[in-house]
Amino acid sequence: MVTIEQKLLLFSKLINNSMDKSLNEELKEMDKQYDLKIKKSMDEANQMAKSIEERAAKKAEMKKTESLSRSKVIIKREIIVLKEKYYYTFMETFKKRLSDFIVSEKYKTYLNSLISNLENLLNSYGECNLVIQLTENDKQRHADFIQKELSKNKNCKNIEFKTTNDIMGGFIAVIPDKDIKMDLSIDAVLEDNKTYIMQTIFEALEAGDLNE
Prior knowledge:
212 residues, alpha+beta
């Protein structure tokens, strides 16, 4: 026969076993939830780290691109400045040669070609009075020649000569009555062909064919 004490002991064991089982289940569930939370936190941390890395990489790439762009602008500016320097250095030398050409016999032939060009232009305007602007040296040396050649053109009623210090050679023809100005000076030719001259100079520089 089971005594009361034995029944109480048995009851206590059952309660303890039940509590142990319940506690174990709770602990397992807690452990499971803890693992899930840890995994979620790790995932969030990894995602955040990845996002930070991506932003940092993007920012670094932007800075790199900006730096490259700034460098290209600086280099391009320096190249332009250098090209301008070479151009003006060349032009100083070239103008000295032109000064020699202007006092040579060949210059008269050049003036004659300018007169022919002017006569072709005058055909579009009919009869007119003409003012020829040229250097003092050219006026003294070539005014009579220019007068003689232009007088052959029936459209030139009257020809007047004026001196100017704004050009180095050639001449500027003005029709005062019609407010027309035709720049046939050497300076205008140089300016009109500046791009071609610069391109020629730089191609020669790249090829190593241009002397100082």
